[in-house]
Design a protein that fits this description.
The protein is mainly beta. It is found in: Cell outer membrane.
Length: about 850
C-alpha cells in the first residue's frame, strides 16, 4: 500500500518533555508551596475583556482579538482566530483557514496590514493575503476595522485586518514563553511537530527607567496531512436531463512547514515621544503530491447508466515557498498642542515554485466499456478491475513548470495633529500625507513533453507499470496505483529541455504591474458633550502601469498600459454616549479597491476564433458605506451589540465572454473581465459576550459568546447570448458573499482549567459564474459548520498543558453545480487532534 509516512515519535517526545517539566516544576514548587495559595492564570475572559476595551475606545467600528497572558491567540493561525469575530468568515484550503472575508465581501476586496503597513500578496493573481502564512505566536492582537477614518488607507470594501506584533510594553519586566506541540491528522494518520517561543524585556537608557523594550518571537511547525476529493468541475449536460460528461478523483498528500520570527524595539525617552522598529519574517513551504484518476464518458450518462469511457491517471508534484517580510520604523513626538508622527514601511512577499511536475498524464490504452458512476453529489466510478491495472495506461504528456512571483510595497507617511478649543469643546485637527510604491512581478516558464512515440520511446517504457508507486490510500473508495514523480523526472531528464519549451504559455503569463499611490487627508475631531464627531476628506491619486506579452496565432507582441485616476473620499463618523456603558455609532465613508492582478493582467492569447485575456483597463471598485449601531458593555468580558450596514458598490468586476460583440464579433470565445454597473450589499451584525462571574461556583467560570451576520447582495451582470444573438442581463449575488455567518462559543475557566467549545457557520455562496444565459452551471460553495474544542490546564503557575480537537464533525468542502444535487467538487479532511506543553514566565 502507498501509505503516508508517520512521525509518531513526536508524541513521545512531547509526552516525555511534559513529564520532565512537571517533575522539575514540582521540585521547584515544593520549596515555595507555603507562599502559593492558588495559580493565577490570564485566560479567555481576560483576553476578551482586553479586546473589548480596545474596541470600545476606537474611533472606528472594529472588532478585536487579543492574545492572552501567555502570548497565545485562541486558534492555530491568524485566519482561524479572526473568523471568530462578527461578520468575518474564512476561505479554507485543505481544511485550513487561509483567506479572510469581511461582511460577505471576497478576500481580494479587503486589505491586510502588519503594524500599520500594507502586506502585499505572494500569489501571482491575487491581492488577498493568506493569513495562515503568519504564525499566531508572533501576534499580540488582531483588529478588523470596518469603517475607515480619513487618515487610513481607503483600500478595503469589507474591512482592513490589522495585525500587531508583540511589544515589550505588553508585559511588565521580563517575559518569556516556550511551547511544544504534537498534532495528529486522522485522515492520514500522521503526527506532526510544532515549537515556538517568545521573549521580551525592558531596559533603562539614559535617565529613563524601563524606557527601552526588546521583544522577539520564533515559531516552527511542520504539518503532514492530506485530503480526498472527487470533482466534476460542473461538467453536467442539463439539456439531456442532468447527465454527467466526466469526473475526477483526487488524493492529496501534503506537507506544510511554517516558520517565522519577529524582532521589535520600542523606545520611550520621555512622556512626550516614542519610537519603534517592528520586523517580521514568515516562511511557508508547501509540498504537495496529487494523484488523480479521471473518466470521460463517450456519451453523457445518468447515475447507474453504463457506456464507454476514456480513462486517465495523473500526477501533480510541486513544492512552493511563500515568504513575507515586513519592516516598519516610526515614531511620535508632542510639541505643546502639536503632535507629529511618521512611519516608513517596507514589505515584500514572494512565491517561488521551482521546476516541478505540473501534470503528468497516463491515458488508458483502450476505452473502458460498461463504465458509469453512482451518486450525483459525490460521484464514484462503476468500472471493471482493468481500470485499476497499471498495464492498461501509457504516458501521454508531462507538463513541467517553474514560477516566481514577487510583490513589494514601500511607503512613507507623515501626520500632524493639533489640539485646540472650539467654543469650549475639545477639538483636534489632523492632516497628513502618504506615498506608496507597489510593484508586482510574475515570471512563469513552462515546458510540454509529448509525442513520446516519435521520440523513440517504446510502449513498454511508457507503460504506467514502470512508474507505479504502491496503491493510493483513498478514503472515498478504490483508487489504484500511485505514480512515482522521481521515475517521471528520470525519463524526461534525459531529453533536451529547450526542445519542449512552451513559449506561448511562458510569455503571456509574465507581467510587471506597478501602482504608485499619493494620498493626502484633512480631518477634524470634536467632542460636544456626549458626542464625538470626526469629519474629513481623503485624496488618493493612482498611477498604474502594466507590461506584458500577447500572442496572436503564435505571433508575439509587447503590451503596455498606463493610466492615472483620482479619488476624493469624504468621511463622517459620530459616536454618542447614551450612558457610561452604552454608546451609539454611525459612519458614512467612501472606499476604493483596485481589481486583482489576475484581472488586470496585460497578457492575451488569440488562437483562431478563441481568445483569453486580462483587462488592464478595468476601473477600480468604489463603495459608499453607511454603518449604524449600538454597543452596550456589561462588566468583565461582557458586551452586546447590533449594527446595520449598507454598501453601494460601483464597478464590481466579473468574468464574461465578449464573443459576438464589437471587435470579437467573429469569435466563438472571448473570455475576459468586465466592470458591472453597481451592486448593493446590506446586512445586520449581532454580537454577544458574557462572563457569568456573579453566579455561584462552579457556574461563575462560565463564558458565552455568540455573533451572527445576516447580509444580502444584489448585482447585475451583462453579456452577449450567442444562441439568441442579443445582449442579456441577469441578477446575481456578489461572488463569495454568504447570507449568514455565525459563531457560537461556550467556555468555562477557573484558576487552573480553561475549556472552550466553539462552532463556526458559513452559509452557501456563489463561487464562479457561468455564461450569461447559463445559470444552471454557476458553481456554489455549500454551507459549512466547523466545531472545535480546546482545553488548557495549568499544572503550576508557569506550566500549562493543552489539548485541541479541530473539525470534530469532519465537515467536508462541497461545491455544487446549479443546485445541491449536482457535484462540482467534494473534499474530505478529517479531524485533527493536538497535544501541547507551554512554559511561561511573566
Amino acid at each position: 500500500m502507498y501509505k503516508r509516512s508517520s512521525t509518531a515519535g513526536v508524541v513521545g517526545f512531547t509526552l516525555t518533555a511534559l513529564a520532565m517539566a512537571i517533575a522539575s516544576e514540582r521540585l521547584s514548587a515544593a520549596e515555595t508551596v507555603a507562599n502559593t495559595e492558588h495559580v493565577e492564570v490570564v485566560g479567555q475572559a481576560a483576553s476578551i475583556d482586553q479586546a473589548l476595551k480596545e474596541q470600545r475606545s476606537s474611533d472606528s467600528i472594529k472588532s478585536v482579538v487579543h492574545a492572552d497572558g501567555v502570548a497565545q491567540l485562541p486558534d492555530e493561525n491568524v485566519a482561524e482566530a479572526v473568523q471568530r469575530l462578527p461578520g468575518v468568515s474564512v476561505e479554507r484550503d485543505q481544511g485550513e483557514g487561509r483567506f479572510v472575508s469581511v461582511r460577505g465581501l471576497g478576500p481580494d476586496l479587503n486589505s491586510v496590514t502588519i503594524n500599520g503597513t500594507l502586506v502585499p500578496s505572494p500569489e501571482s493573481e491575487r491581492r488577498a493575503v493568506a493569513l495562515d502564512v503568519l504564525p499566531s505566536e508572533l501576534v499580540q492582537s488582531l483588529s478588523v476595522i470596518k469603517t475607515l477614518t480619513p487618515d487610513m488607507d481607503a483600500n478595503s470594501l469589507g474591512g482592513t485586518v490589522d495585525v500587531k506584533s508583540l511589544s515589550a510594553f505588553d508585559h511588565k519586566g521580563l517575559f518569556y514563553t516556550g511551547s511544544s506541540e504534537a498534532s495528529y491528522d486522522k485522515n492520514t494518520h500522521q503526527t506532526s511537530p510544532k515549537f515556538s517561543g517568545a521573549i521580551s524585556d525592558r531596559f533603562s537608557l539614559g535617565d529613563g527607567i524601563d524606557n527601552f523594550g526588546v521583544a522577539a518571537a520564533l515559531s516552527w511547525q511542520k504539518r503532514d496531512f492530506g485530503s480526498d476529493n472527487v470533482e466534476t468541475g460542473g461538467a453536467w449536460d442539463f439539456e439531456q436531463g442532468a447527465k454527467l460528461q466526466e469526473f475526477e478523483q483526487r488524493d492529496y498528500d501534503i506537507s506544510r512547514e511554517r516558520s517565522g520570527g519577529g524582532l521589535n524595539f520600542d523606545y520611550k525617552p520621555d512622556d512626550l515621544s516614542s519610537y519603534y522598529l517592528r520586523t517580521l519574517y514568515s516562511r511557508y513551504k508547501d509540498s504537495e503530491t496529487r494523484n488523480s484518476t479521471s473518466l470521460e464518458f463517450a456519451d453523457p450518462l445518468t447515475a447507474g447508466e453504463l457506456g464507454d469511457a476514456e480513462g486517465s491517471r495523473k500526477l501533480k508534484q510541486r513544492e512552493e515557498t511563500q515568504e513575507i517580510q515586513s519592516y516598519v520604523l516610526g515614531g511620535e513626538r508632542m510639541f505643546g498642542l502639536w503632535t507629529l508622527s511618521g512611519q516608513a514601511g517596507y514589505s515584500r512577499s514572494s512565491e517561488d515554485s521551482p521546476g516541478h511536475i505540473a501534470n503528468a498524464a497516463f491515458n488508458g490504452t483502450d476505452d473502458f466499456t460498461d463504465s458509469g458512476f453512482y451518486d450525483n453529489d459525490k460521484p464514484r466510478p462503476i468500472i471493471g478491475q482493468s481500470f485499476y491495472n497499471p498495464d492498461n495506461f501509457s504516458l501521454d504528456k508531462v507538463d513541467w513548470e517553474k514560477q516566481k512571483t514577487t510583490d513589494t510595497e514601500k511607503n512613507l507617511r507623515l501626520d500632524l495633529a493639533r489640539d485646540y478649543d472650539f467654543s469650549g469643546y475639545a477639538s483636534q485637527v489632523k492632516f497628513g500625507g502618504k506615498v506608496s510604491r507597489r510593484n508586482k512581478d510574475n515570471n512563469l516558464d513552462a515546458w510540454v513533453y509529448e509525442d513520446f512515440d516519435d521520440l523513440g520511446f517504446s510502449d513498454e517504457q511508457l507503460n504506467l507499470s514502470r512508474f507505479k508507486k504502491g496503491t493510493v490510500d483513498y478514503r472515498l473508495g478504490q483508487f489504484g496505483p500511485g505514480i512515482s514523480g522521481s521515475a517521471i523526472k528520470q525519463l524526461i531528464g534525459g531529453l533536451n529541455q529547450a526542445d519542449f519549451y512552451d513559449e506561448t504559455e511562458s510569455r503571456v503569463n509574465d507581467f510587471k504591474i506597478s501602482e504608485d499611490i499619493n494620498a493626502g487627508y484633512l480631518m477634524n475631531t470634536i467632542d460636544i458633550d456626549d458626542w464625538r464627531f470626526i469629519a474629513g476628506m481623503r485624496y488618493e491619486g493612482t498611477e498604474f502601469e502594466a507590461k506584458g506579452t500577447g500572442a496572436t496565432d503564435g505571433e508575439f507582441q509587447s503590451t503596455e498600459t498606463k493610466r492615472r485616476y483620482h479619488h476624493w473620499l469624504p468621511g463622517l463618523h459620530a459616536r454618542y454616549q447614551l450612558d457610561k456603558n452604552t454608546q451609539v455609532r454611525a459612519a458614512w465613508t467612501k472606499s476604493v479597491v483596485r481589481p486583482t492582478f489576475g484581472q488586470l493582467a496585460p497578457g492575451f492569447v488569440i488562437d483562431d476564433d478563441e481568445a483569453t485575456f486580462g483587462n488592464p483597463d478595468l476601473k477600480p471598485l468604489e463603495s459608499s458605506n453607511l454603518d449604524l449601531g449600538i454597543e452596550h458593555y456589561m462588566g468583565h468580558a461582557g458586551t452586546v451589540s447590533a449594527f446595520v450596514f449598507y454598501k453601494d458598490i460601483k464597478n464590481f468586476v466579473y468574468n464574461t465572454d465578449l464573443a459576438g460583440t464589437g471587435a470579437w464579433a467573429d469569435f466563438s470565445e472571448a473570455h475576459t473581465f468586465a466592470n458591472g454597473d453597481s451592486a448593493k450589499l446590506y446586512g445586520l451584525e449581532l454580537a454577544y459576550s458574557q462572563k457569568f462571574d456573579w453566579l455561584p461556583a462552579p457556574w461563575n467560570g462560565l463564558l458565552l459568546g455568540a455573533n451572527t451576520t445576516f447580509s444580502r447582495s444584489d448585482a447585475e451582470i451583462e453579456g452577449f447570448d450567442a444562441a439568441s444573438g442579443i445582449n442579456r442581463k441577469r441578477s446575481i449575488d456578489l461572488p463569495n458573499q454568504s447570507d449568514t455567518v455565525g459563531n457560537l462559543m461556550l467556555g468555562w475557566e477557573d484558576d487552573k482549567l480553561s475549556l472552550r467549545l466553539s462552532a463556526n457557520y458559513k452559509s452557501d455562496y456563489l463561487f464562479e459564474l457561468a455564461s450569461i444565459n447559463d445559470k444552471a452551471h454557476d458553481l456554489h460553495v455549500d454551507a459549512q459548520t466547523f466545531v472545535d474544542f480546546s482545553a488548557r490546564y495549568s499544572l503550576t503557575k508557569n506550566l500549562q498543558v493543552s489539548f485541541e480537537a479541530q473539525n470534530l464533525t469532519d465537515e467536508p468542502y462541497f461545491v455544487y453545480t446549479g443546485n445541491r444535487s449536482y457535484n462540482g467538487q467534494y473534499e474530505e479532511y478529517g479531524p485533527t487532534y493536538k497535544l501541547g506543553l507551554t512554559f511561561t514566565h511573566f
